Amino acid sequence: MQEYDKIERRKKDLYKILFDVAFEAVIIIDLETYDIIDANPKALELFEYSFDEILKLKITDLSMDSEKTKLALANDNLQYVPLSWYKKKKDTKIPVEITAARLTYDNKKIIIFNIKDLTAVFYKQQIEANLKISEKRYRAIVEDQVELICRFSPDGLLTFVNSAYCKYFDKSYNDLIGTPFMDLIDDCDKEFVKNSFDKVTKNTPFDHYDYKFIKNNEVKWIHWSNRAIFDDSGNIVEYQSIGFDITERKCLEDKVRKSRNRYRAILDNLQEGFYQTDKDGCIIFVSQSALEMLGYSMRQEVLGTPIRDFFVEPENREILVSRLKRAGGKLYEQEVEILNNNNEALLISLNIQVILDESGNFNGTQGTFRDITEFKRRLNEIIKLYHVVEGSQNALVLMELDGTIIYANQASLTVARSPEWVTVEEHAIGKKIKHFISFDKNIDFSKVCESINKDGKWFGSAYAFCACNNKERIPIDVMFSKIKNGSNKYYIVASYYDVSEYRRLEEKIKEQSRLYEELSQSMQELVEQMNFVNKRSSEKILALEGAFKKSVEEFTTSPSPTKGGLRIDAS
């Protein structure tokens, strides 16, 4: 018997050691009272209580949903509880995962909770979800590009190619990924391409070149823009190449070299402006479209003029040429401010390249440009409008006619009193408006929709559901408006704001108004009573005055008591 007791004591000591050194939080609960009867150090650390403090609590005191926890404990088959929300000593909300075990110990039914903190996992999932959304968005952007885009490791193996790249080289994504980038380059050009990448350094992370090859018995040209990607230590971890098919432009250049007149005819009919300068920067050719864009009618007005004179800031011309030479002789989509014939500033998008003489020396520049002044103005208006919408204190929600939300501004989260981790995409996008705006019982949502379709708008009171609790409703004033875009498609815009404080003040004003009316009524009654008393008093005074006058008259006309005659009026 003593040996058995000794073994049992050793077991208990061993269990206590394992209990205290467990990697997860462990809490032991009295199944009948839900009282916490023991907790290991990990549990004390997780919930931020001391041992004496946690023994005064029930397990339901730690749960964010005590009723749900009671129901779970009542389940005899309870073994695992997935994501649940518990709270620390200072009511900090934490996600946990629970593994439970029932047993009888010292004639007492207990349940052991093994609690795993999922905070890191939960927020990692949130971050991963956001990253997936961003990756999907940016991948869609990349896949929609007509440019050829690829990435490859320093050892030359392809790590990414977009759809345009696959289509251009008639290969599938799986056929290309992991294969040497140089396999797509003709043997005679491999050294030339390799030299281009060898030029890329930390100080000069870009290089450009035009590549000529034969595809389907046709000459093709691609302008490649190469960029190195470095890690924090300055080592190259990857290369990225973006290719533009410039075959047509190369063919055009070839035709231009063969026929000057034909070349000029083509340029004069371009919608974009075209110009050429000599090595000193003076204009030697300008297309008709460029003249019209600048407000000139004759080429003689422009030819021979230093091109820097057309720049709003002339020194920018030299800066542009310097950058052009460093970039390998070509620059695209450069935004430049120039002056027209009326000395008005125009914003143009400029594609420019170096002209070389037969010896390969700098001999001037040429380029195409288009007026983007109006485009930029509209773009800036759109940007301003976006900031106005995003900065608005009113919640603004754009939806399809069936109520599906396609846009919501940041204020929609503020009105819904959402926590910081809730995003517009998670809270609103793709959901129906009825899931987070409701109305009083006497307002039928279908009637609201009929009014919107009939009158184009509806204004009234409603409620917005709280983002973290669909049962809590926030009073709002909301305006629904029906709008149409340029493609004649209709949408509905909802604009609303939190009127909780306004409603509270309104009720307070109503109560004060009611008290004022009661006070006014009481004052009116008091005035009427005072008027009645004054009237009675006036009547009594008049009666006394009449009696007094009568007495005086009788006194003055009565016989004298001493002389036997009439009493003489002393007056």
Structure, explained:
With 571 residues, the protein is of the alpha+beta class. It folds into four domains: 13-117, PAS domain (Beta-Lactamase); 127-249, Beta-Lactamase (2-Layer Sandwich), CATH 3.30.450.20; 272-377, Beta-Lactamase (2-Layer Sandwich); 392-498, PAS domain (Beta-Lactamase). It has 18 helices and 21 strands. It has helices spanning 2-21, 41-47, 51-54, 59-62, 66-74, 119-143, 163-168, 173-176, 190-198, 247-258, 260-268, 288-294, 315-326, 373-391, 411-415, 424-427, 445-455, 500-557, and strands at 25-30, 36-39, 80-87, 93-105, 108-117, 148-152, 158-161, 206-215, 218-230, 236-245, 273-277, 283-286, 330-339, 345-356, 362-371, 395-399, 405-408, 437-438, 457-466, 469-484, 490-498. Strands 17-16-21-20-19-18 form a six-stranded antiparallel sheet. It has a five-stranded antiparallel sheet with strand order 2-1-5-4-3. A hairpin with a 2-residue loop joins β4 (93-105) and β5. The protein starts with a helix and ends in a 14-residue tail after the last helix. The mean pLDDT is 81.
List the helices and strands and how they pair.
Layout: H1 2-21, E1 25-30, E2 36-39, H2 41-47, H3 51-54, H4 59-62, H5 66-74, E3 80-87, E4 93-105, E5 108-117, H6 119-143, E6 148-152, E7 158-161, H7 163-168, H8 173-176, H9 190-198, E8 206-215, E9 218-230, E10 236-245, H10 247-258, H11 260-268, E11 273-277, E12 283-286, H12 288-294, H13 315-326, E13 330-339, E14 345-356, E15 362-371, H14 373-391, E16 395-399, E17 405-408, H15 411-415, H16 424-427, E18 437-438, H17 445-455, E19 457-466, E20 469-484, E21 490-498, H18 500-557
Antiparallel strand pairs: 1-2, 1-5, 3-4, 4-5, 6-7, 6-10, 8-9, 9-10, 11-12, 11-15, 13-14, 14-15, 16-17, 16-21, 18-19, 19-20, 20-21
Helix pairs in contact: 10-11
